């Protein structure tokens, strides 16, 4: 079994990456393979509304030179998906929004590609807007027939500078519990 995490922060290896890797640790302890894809390494553009993917049902985007299709293919092959973003202006980053906008239309054309995948969203925030950002990621996954995993609180952890999230003990414990719950559900579905 494999879980792929997408870090929507333009800051590579920052707080959001710490959160995803914390969930990964729990998954790996249960023998689940993990891979992190950081959007900071790419310049993924927004959807250009050509509707080519929708009408052709190609399962990929016509913009093939910016890393979107590479990232999308990793998600297609995964049993579980973690989407992570810092809060930017009370929502997800523009990098993550560009990614889910494009993925949404590809998946609207070729339905069922994410059906029954296990999904979780995690958010790093300085102070406000985490629940809106979490909702944005949940709305995407829910509308693609995925099973969403919860934890003991909503999946948000507080910190501004890199590493500050580790001081939010309740938030980090919630991430560990999230990883355990995700492993549990993956095991139930795939054994
Ligand atoms: C452009 C920008 C907008 C931000 N907007 C918010 C916000 O609305 N609410 C908030 O709590 N934090 C906001 N932040 C702070 C980040 O969410 C916070 O520093 C987070 O830990 C960064 O995670 P990262 O290290 O993964 O990038 C913003 C940061 C930037 C750079």
Structure in words:
Strands 1, 2, 3, 4, 5 and 6 form a six-stranded parallel beta sheet that branches. Helices cover 42% and strands 17% of the residues. The chain has six helices and six strands; from the N terminus they run βαβααβαβαββα. It has one domain: Flavodoxin domain (Rossmann fold, 3-Layer(aba) Sandwich), CATH 3.40.50. α1 packs across α6. The structure holds flavin mononucleotide. Flavin mononucleotide (FMN) binds next to α1 and β4.
How does the SSE layout of this entry go?
Layout: E1 2-7, H1 15-29, E2 33-38, H2 52-56, H3 68-77, E3 80-86, H4 94-109, E4 118-125, H5 130-142, E5 147-148, E6 156-158, H6 169-190
Parallel strand pairs: 1-2, 1-3, 3-4, 4-5, 4-6
The structure holds flavin mononucleotide (FMN).
Flavin mononucleotide binds at residues 9, 11, 14-16, 86-90, 124-129, 159-160, 162.
